[in-house]
Amino acid sequence: MTFDPQALTEQIRAAGEHERRVIARFLQREIKLPHKNDLFDSSQTFGQRLADQVAAFGGSWTFILLFLGVMTVWILFNVAAGKSFDPYPFILLNLVLSMLAALQAPVILMSQNRQSAKDRLDSTHDYDVNVKSEMEITTLHTKIDELRQNQWDELIRLQRDQLVLLQELRNTVKAS
Predict the structure, then answer these.
(1) Which pLDDT value is given to residue 15?
(2) Which end of the chain is more exposed for a tag (fewer CB within 10 A), N or C?
């Protein structure tokens, strides 16, 4: 395999912007790849962080158990009390549950949208790491090939020296 700098230059020009950045980092021997999630997390607004926390709490066992407890107390209070503020069909409870679902659903969707954007950043970062690893492995292969070639060259040189010595020994034996 021969090295063709012109073909390599054309391939780099044909690569996308992202690939060219990875190649530039490799050529500059940049070891640490920037993790984009840190930047993503720091750029979130207060409302986005709050939505993520609400979504995290709304999808937890703590919320489920707490909510079951509140509904149980609500129902028991309205059934056991002589004069209840929400009698048996529990229309007010249904209204509260509907309002909670109506408010919680968009908050969870906003959080999921941000999480999918974060996942895309993660996949881009994983790609960068994989490309960098592949380049490092290629560099290691090249170094090992060079070492192996140097060993072969040394072995051939030693064998030639041995042949010269054997030829001299043969000439010496022949001459005696």
Answers:
(1) 78
(2) N
Residue 3 in tokens: 């090295």
pTM here is 0.56
Burial class (CB in 10 A: 0-12, 13-18, 19+), 75: middle
Query: What per-residue string of b and e applies to 130-157 under the rule 16 or more CB within 10 Å gives b?
Result: ebbeeeeeeeeeeeeeeeeeeeeeeeee
Can you give the pLDDT at residue 116? 92
pLDDT at 31: 58
DSSP string of 30-84, one letter each residue: --SPPPHHHHHHHT--HHHHHHHHHHHHHTSHHHHHHHHHHHHHHHHHHHHSSS-
DSSP for residue 15 = S
Task: Classify residue 16 as exposed, middle or buried by CB count within 10 Å of its CB (0-12, 13-18, 19+).
Answer: exposed
Distances (CA, A) of 150 to 27, 155, 164: 25, 9, 21
Specify the 3-state DSSP secondary structure of 16.
coil
pLDDT, tens only, 159-172 = 999 999 999 999 99
